[in-house]
Amino acid sequence: MAYSLNVCHLYGDLMNTYGDLGNILVLKYLANQMGVGLTSEVVSLGQPFDPTKYDIVVFGGGQDFEQSIVSKDIQTKKTALTNFIEDNGSVVAICGGYQLLGHYYIGANGEKLLGIGALDHYTDKQKDHRFIGNVVIENEETGERYHGFENHQGLTFLGKGERPLGKVLEGHGNNGQDQTEGAIYKNVYCTYFHGPILARNNQIAKHVLVNALTRKYPDADLSQPEALKVGDTF
Ligand code: GLN
């Protein structure tokens, strides 16, 4: 195939609740439909993240225990991941992964787990409560509606440069207070949706693939080769 993308499944062996791995299967399926090859590999504890090797990072959700291990290790990858994000690398981060891209996450037992602060949000704890259930949101720029399932105790508050993935129409979203769900920063898509999100919301997969292809092949005409027909295939 003339075009190919390489996905880093960040801590894929530890952070993969509710089938978040399915997001990579969806990316691969849809990329192949576009005539684009897609490979993936897990980068986990003690392994460096080389930003020049990857076009997309997928960072799934996790329980507090796994997050406490990842919180320590990810500090060694902080600069490389931040550079990748600042250089318009594409990221899909779910729940626990979303939390650890921000400044910190307060676990259910009150422990403060450091994130990498690549994005400006932070996540507080709820008092003996979790948000569990279906969510429907609407992205205010595109008008697209996304459907998902949330299960988190963390309350996330967005910061500088971040806009929500959508406005909450049903469910709780980031914190149950400001009607925001998820975050978009540059080419980073964050969300509390498990499910996996990309299987139910192909439009987001399309944005991620197109962003990654545009960055890797700036001269490619994405509307041209049948390979890159990104409209109707979704
Ligand atoms: N442990 C985090 C929380 O409860 C993230 C959960 C998840 O990834 N599903 O908020």
TrEMBL record:
It holds the Pfam family GATase_3. Substrate binds at residue 130. PROSITE patterns: GATASE_COBBQ. The active site is at residues 95, 194. Gene3D superfamilies: 3.40.50.880. It comes from the Bacteria. Forms a heterodimer with MurT. This is Lipid II isoglutaminyl synthase (glutamine-hydrolyzing) subunit GatD.
